[in-house]
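Our preliminary data section would be incomplete without showing what the modeling component actually yields. Below, a chain of 458 amino acids is followed by its predicted structure, encoded as tokens that our downstream tools consume directly.
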Amino acid sequence: MKKQTLILGDVFLDIFEVTEVLKISPERPVPVLKPIKIKNLLGGAANVANNIKSIGGSPFLISKLSNDKILKKIQILLKKEKIQFKIFSNKKYSSPIKKRIVENDHQFCRIDNEKIEKLTKPHEREIVKFIKKNIDKFEALVLSDYSKGFLTQSIINKTIKIFKKEKKKIFTDPKNKNIEVYKNSNFICPNQKEFFEFFDYQKLPYNKISTTKLFKKSLSEAFIVTKGSKGISIILKNGKIIDIPQKDINVYDVTGAGDTFIGILSYLISKNLNIVTTLKIASEACAKVVQKKHTSVLTFNEFKKIIEDFCESENIELNLKIILWKLVGLKVGVTNGCFDVLHSGHIHLINECKKNCDKLIVLINSDKSVKSLKGLKRPILDIKKRIKYLKLLKNIDQIEIFNEQTPEKIIAKISPNIIFKGSDYKPKDLAGYKTMLNTGGKIMIIKKLKNFSSSKFL
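Predicted structure:
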């Protein structure tokens, strides 16, 4: 089963009431609005879960709400998005509502209806018991704190302790000004205002020495500070700061952008991606979301496009590309050869390979490897020229050189979904055959064009 991300936090209903202006009121100089339609959307921690689900993750949400109509509406929305959840209900709890009045696709005003009621001790015990029992199913924890009473100091401490013991990553989107509340979170992810409030609460000036003190109090690996149009700053406990700039975009609606960020951040780091790569992708995702209406998420195809564009534009290693391609379900194919003096047979092979995979990696023998296979007079063209001509073919996504006689080692490293080879080979004779048996990959034999072989006419 796919490992899940556990999300603990406050849930509320985002309501967008779309209106149009009829006239200016004769009573006061304010517009008279006519309601057109109402849209109910998941807010808070439920929106974090929805963001993880939309990009192919598997979230599990735990929260609390009053036993009322709002609870039922949120349950219907969660089930519609196929998000697993446990929501603890109590008449004393609040079911927060954030209602936006929207006119001409822009927020006219927001009405919040909520009260803060803390999680009860019986419910806390039940939640802790559930987490302990199911900890093996979870790969990461997200604490989505909106200060509505669910994330008490006690539940935070106990949950973090469980995940820390299992060496699983903990991500916190904070609201409390006291950073010690979130002690032992791996990543604390405030916006810029919230980050400065940590210093104000501790009565510390904002400088490097004070930041070191915050790390000692929080025992975190990094603070990841979102700064809107100014991008993102990663502050590591060794004092190093890495800035990720934000592209210039037309912002349409920032509702829920923070939920998108922590959702995608937790999902990607849980897949063992490095922090810089993760934040670049998360930044692109947030940029896409704030250009949409209302509380929005990425579609899976939008996320896939972000990944593909990132892999093309960034100078990244093959290993990382493969992880990212497979993360969004792209089928990775491999073929290999000397490709000495490119001819119609080669082009036919490449075109047929690409028809059956999303990303095609061509493994090419080095000059040394060609000589050991075909004699001292080969290759006719050196490796640089052979690669130069292969790059002219649009259906190749990546070219990799190998020095051995066969690409067995590099195929095992790539672990492709499919291996392609011409019809003068049998599947059992191919380099990578054992790898495909072990991983469940496939081998496809491509029927060769007749009378096309560099060995025959050289």
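The chain has a mean pLDDT of 92. The radius of gyration is 27 Å. Preliminary results of this kind motivate Aim 1 of the renewal.
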